[in-house]
Task: structure prediction
Amino acid sequence: MDINKSSGLILHPSSLPGEYGIGELGSNCFEFIDLLKTSNTRIWQVLPLGITDEVEYSPYSSKSSILGNPYLISLNDLENKIIDKNILNELKKLSVSEVDFKNVYSQKQKLFQSISKKIDINDSVYSKFLESNDLIKKHITFVTLSEAIGTSWTKWDKDYLNYSEDTLQKVSEKYNYIFAKNVFLQYEFNTQWKKLKNYANLNNVSILGDIPIYVNHNSADVWLNKDLFDLDENNQMEYVSGAVPDDFTVEGQIWNTALYDWEKHAETNYLYWIDKLNANLNNFNYLRIDHFIGFFQFWAIPFGKSALEGHWRDGPWKTFFEKISDKVHFDKLLAEDLGVELEKTAEILDKYGIPGMKVLQQRIPDKKDHDEIHPKNWSENVVAYTGTHDSPTIKQWFDETNKEQINFFNEYKKGLNNKYESDVWNFISMTWESPCKVTITTVQDLLELGVEGRFNLPGTQKGNWKWRIEDLDQLSEPLEKLKLLNQACERVTT
Result:
């Protein structure tokens, strides 16, 4: 990553305060950027911002790798004349301490439907938006059909099984209100996001985005690119993605997302990936690729079976990186290379200068005979994390980890230059004092929250992604402390 020595925070926009049940791309986002600037914290990691499903509400499970999540749009920044005040009042009654996704989505959808009947889709501002964004136009066509028909695309009429300009015309006419609504929402999302990103950059704050390696089977990506996915003659998945069983998940994980037909991708010189990566890099300063190991080998699970019945398959790494290296800015990428450690992964990262990740929670030894490297000896070209969105909070880690790890941590912290009464902050300090160019923690850890602050528990479908900070004033004291730590560790850029 082409960035000076610096630090960052993880916070999904949905976790920000706000009066309508969920954090939005409005004033609180701008205030958060101001706080980052004041504390000399130069990276905001936002996680994926795509349309979520309505089962898990996970930002890592989306109907589109291109479109933004309309439920994050700032309602206060829309034209007041098209806003239904009654619905706004209902949204104001929702919880401020967590996101009630079901009710937020339900109420906002009512609002969006009322808006769709008041806008002119033929207005030049919308037509220009579609004309200049071919991928967005195609993905909007999919989400419109998906909403209008209400079933998986594999069950659609043959007229809609494949995309063409004729398909676009039919959809925009037959489902004009739904189509108009989705065009409006994506226009608003893009407009608001660009304004926010520009503000961040002007204040020397970079936005680190996130892109899952896999996509949902019922997504625009698969509908538009059927030949590039591992599907049977009926366009169904014979195998799905997941994770190999390990010490943390003894039965493995089933993600149920579509696998790629990498041979078909190679025949196109990986154009799908070039387009997808560049479209996302256009929205962020830097981009984290989730489950980077999948480019090297991946766990294929027979559809409907347990993860224990999966098997390893080879990824496209031998040709993939070479073919796209002159078409994608590798200096803007971060690889989530956690989990299975492969020599060839390290070779590729080193060859192209792409940093990997180290997570301190995963690197504190739990036995005397170990091969872990002390954080003070970590590589410079690594992004060091205290934990991730999938991890326990630091306080929860201390509450639940074993005695051996606590003992190792106590030994590690003896060498700290910046020590605190709080071991949560000693944990942060240990990460910050590493030689790694970039260090990142979570807002929940700055607040020293326990299990109540956990954002996601992998392998579970309910109760995740809901956490919110109720008031940004809660960050004033922790960010002042972080500012001093940034200065002490020379993580201050100008």
Q: What stands out?
A: Residues 6-65+199-488 form a domain with the TIM Barrel fold (CATH 3.20.20.80).
